[in-house]
Specification:
The protein is α/β, with parallel strands linked by helices and 616 residues long. It is built from 17 helices and 23 strands. α15 links the parallel β14 and β15. α5 crosses α6 and α12 packs across α13. The structure holds S-adenosylmethionine. InterPro entries: Arg_MeTrfase (IPR025799), Arg_MeTrfase_PRMT5 (IPR007857), PRMT5 (IPR035075), PRMT5_C (IPR035248), PRMT5_TIM (IPR035247), SAM-dependent_MTases_sf (IPR029063). This is Protein arginine N-methyltransferase. Keywords: Methyltransferase, S-adenosyl-L-methionine, Transferase.
Length: 616
């Protein structure tokens, strides 16, 4: 969620300076904002005026209900029918747009839905429902749910899941401390929490991966290991709440963060995670210069906000290509099926923009030409080259340019099964005057009876997982017309696989509520993923392959070792390489004690009923 600030309607004094500023080359739609955690106040306009106008923060993370409120006490007084809920003020004190852009609601932190104490448990459930209902009434964008009190949170999750079923646009952020002990009890929290990812994982599983449920991480002064932090990059983390206690003091007495914290925060910015500053002023720097021109005191947490803004502004600008591709990040793209379907002009145009690819093809064809025809025979011998799957002709052009560059005589057959692309091919040949050199064949390469054999077979049939657009099947058919010593370009390719968790992608697929989408080998530009182990090669394909045993049924079992400090990871397990194929994982979980993941790749079958993704 990107909190956008709307013009102040009722509280005219609320005017903010600027968010965290601009990251070089960053799209304005990607601006980052910084919130501040506050105590309960029944004067919300003053609260906003102080933290937003004076403090420069973008929004407040504020309790919605008086913390002393307990439904059972109100009932005991017999006043439940006559008393209004002790909320932070009437909805009328702010315009709906202000509530939604300046306030994230904080559900009472005392609630404990798994308490043994029945009164507390009942009070907790009632209050949680009342606060969420109030937040919905105010049109808030998000509400922070308090951290579960212990490691067992079944009733809390059950209740939240029930709320999620009827929730409109409100997002719920479960507050979770960023901890993972490495066996050293010092790292664990007082509630005995050793690995907060486990807590989050159990909670969201009980809430059926609802996409309206996300995490807000409490960033502590001690950070867990890199591998364990990496798991959070595949989760829907919405906010990082940094306590003022986690800041160090620089030489000039100002707050700053450790190098590891800086790296973590930069990673969060890169994943659109909002930062919230929490706590009291612990770097006591109030000086004369801390008052502004009108003599108003500077906000006590301003130096923390300035430091967060500094971290954002010093980030490297995004490379041009990355910026162009921003819209594709973590976006499920339906895979192409060029053998079954006829590609559209727009798709060919996208291929043809990849100039590097055609330069490499031209180089490869030039080398093959020189390899087959020595200089002294260059004027006598004509090389027969077949472009199989010629599309609109870029590989025909690259091949002719290679012939010109090497001064070799070339005869080209351009084989294409898409009749629409064949129209373009005919126009191209006519326009370029290639009629003497190029013959167009409108046919499926697997069934063409070629009039002669080829020296060189050029194709570009690769899917992003190598064979998933059926390159081996097509080339096995086409190699009938390649001379026994002929050359295939490409001559080989390998697919790779890597286990990752990717909560957003999992939810996007799950939203379709059918198996077909879990079985679809989507193409994805991965961004919010946790890479659990290094990638490994899966299948290598070599062409030509004249072996009589050639067969395109493949099966492979791989073992991935997860770093021992990573903790467990599963459930939104995904696998991806350049794009994805579906794979099944043998064994139902990756537990901490068994730091391995066995993967059996079988593109057509999912043996254990779970779908996973594969990618790089
Ligand atoms: C990925 S496109 C590449 C097109 C072109 N070579 C380029 O680089 O722009 C693959 C092309 O192969 C064609 N194709 C796929 N299978 C084929 C087959 N069995 N026989 C003939 N053409 C095929 C498709 O129609 C498509 O035009």
């Amino acid at each position: 969620m990107c909190l956008r600030l709307l013009p102040s309607l009722l509280v005219s004094s609320i005017e903010r300076e600027m968010p965290l500023g601009e990251r070089g080359g960053w799209e304005s739609s990607e601006s980052m904002y910084c919130g501040v955690e506050t105590d309960f106040s029944d004067d919300v306009p003053s609260l906003l005026s102080f933290h937003i106008s004076t403090g420069g923060f973008d929004y407040v993370l504020a309790p919605l209900m008086n913390p002393s409120y307990r439904p059972s006490l109100v009932e005991a007084n017999g006043s439940s029918d006559t008393q209004a809920l002790p909320v932070s003020g009437s909805d009328l004190v702010l315009a709906p747009s202000q509530w939604s852009s300046h306030v994230v609601g904080k559900v009472s932190s005392w609630i404990d839905l798994d308490s043994e104490d029945e009164v507390l448990r009942m009070d907790s459930e009632t209050t949680l429902k009342q606060e969420i209902a109030w937040a919905t009434h105010l049109s808030l964008q998000a509400c922070l749910l308090p951290t579960p009190k212990g490691t067992s949170c079944a009733n809390y999750a059950r209740c939240v899941n029930q709320i999620l079923q009827g929730l409109g646009n409100l997002q719920l952020w479960l507050r979770v401390p960023l901890v993972k002990s490495d066996g050293d009890s010092m790292d664990a929290t007082s509630e005995g929490l050793n690995d907060s990812w486990e807590l989050w994982n159990s909670f969201r599983l009980l809430c059926e991966h609802d996409s309206k449920l996300s995490v807000a991480l409490d960033v502590m002064s001690n950070l867990p290991s890199e591998s364990s932090l990496g798991r959070w990059m595949g989760e829907s983390v919405r906010a990082a709440i940094i306590s003022t206690d986690s800041f160090l003091t620089n030489a000039r007495g100002y707050p700053c963060l450790s190098k590891r914290h800086q790296k973590l925060i930069a990673g969060f910015f890169d994943h659109a995670v909002q930062v919230v500053v929490s706590g009291k002023l612990v770097h006591n720097l109030q000086r004369a210069s801390d008052s502004n021109a009108e003599g108003t005191q500077r906000h006590p947490l301003r130096s923390y906000l300035d430091y967060v803004a500094y971290l954002f502004q010093k980030m490297e600008p995004l490379p041009e290509q990355e910026r162009i591709e921003l819209g594709y990040r973590d976006f499920l793209q339906a895979p192409l099926q060029p053998l079954m379907d006829n590609l559209e002009a727009q798709t060919y145009e996208t291929f043809e923009r990849d100039s590097i690819k055609y330069i490499q093809y031209q180089r490869a064809v030039a080398k093959a030409l020189v390899d087959r025809v020595p200089d002294e025979k260059a004027s006598e011998l004509t090389t027969v080259l077949m472009v199989v799957g010629a599309g609109r002709g870029p590989l025909v052009r690259a091949s002719l340019q290679a012939a010109e560059e090497t001064d070799r005589k070339l005869k080209v057959y351009a084989v294409e099964k898409n009749p629409n692309a064949v129209v373009t091919l005919h126009n191209l040949v006519k326009m370029e005057g290639w009629e003497d050199m190029v013959t167009i064949i409108s046919c499926d390469m697997r069934f063409w009876t070629a009039p002669e054999k080829a020296d060189i077979l050029v194709s570009e049939l690769l899917g992003s997982f190598g064979d998933n657009e059926l390159s081996p099947e097509c080339l096995d058919g086409a190699q009938r017309f390649l001379k026994p010593d002929g050359i295939s370009i490409p001559s080989s390719y390998t697919s790779f696989i890597q286990p990752v968790t990717a909560s957003k992608l999992y939810n996007d697929v799950k939203a379709h509520k059918d198996l077909a989408h879990f079985e679809t080998p989507y193409v994805v530009k991965l961004h919010s993923v946790a890479r659990l182990a290094p990638s490994q090669p899966v299948f290598t394909f070599a062409h030509p392959n004249f072996s009589t045993k050639a067969n395109n049924q493949r099966y492979k079992k791989l073992r991935f070792n997860l770093p021992s400090d990573a903790g467990s990871a599963l459930d939104s397990l995904a696998i991806l390489i350049p794009s994805c194929i579906k794979m099944s994982i043998l064994g139902s979980s990756l537990q901490q004690k068994h730091q391995t993941c066995s993967a059996a790749l079988s593109p057509m079958h999912n043996t254990n009923g779970r779908s996973y993704w594969v990618g790089l």
